[in-house]
Amino acid sequence: MPHVERGMAVGIFGGSFNPPHAGHALVAEISLRRLRLDQLWWLVTPGNPLKDATQLAPLSQRLEQSEAITPDPRVKVTAFEAAHRIRYTADTLELAVRRNPGVDFVWIMGADSLAGFHRWQRWRDIMAIMPIAVIDRPGATLSFLSSVTAKAFNRARIDEDEASLLARTPAPAWTFIHGPRSSLSSTAIRNAG
Predict the structure, then answer these.
(1) What reaction does this enzyme carry out catalytically (predicted)?
(2) Which pLDDT value is given to residue 167?
(3) Domains of the chain: which residue ranges?
């Protein structure tokens, strides 16, 4: 786990990053700026229970590729889930909070993940562990409010203009951040290769 200090605002941006690409780097950049984060943990997961693991590149390769496209020193590429044998996001977030008292965390995810977020293991617990920033992705801008999660946690949504306060806001809290979008997709990159 990357080193942090009490009082820091830290975003956790998890994914398989199979492969990582400029669209992921754009999400990291937007998150650092709009959420006013001190650090962003680029969390490369060993696997995703909702995705086909047979097409997954080795973890070491995805870590190396992620480090190559994240020059900002505030971005800390990590795979601590593998060392702790963690499989589900809720367990990851609980560990991060438990190990780092006094740090204000935000879970960061692309808007394309919001549509199926209610299928994630313990998704309601994730909403209760830390605030969530949902970053705009092509094709998800207009449909995000109709998702099961957005409807279930409508009252916990904060205005995008207050995104810089999200890390300091008690969970459940979430916001949707509009901005530049990348049409790049790891699936499309794998299929083209």
Answers:
(1) nicotinate beta-D-ribonucleotide + ATP + H(+) = deamido-NAD(+) + diphosphate
(2) 97
(3) 12-192
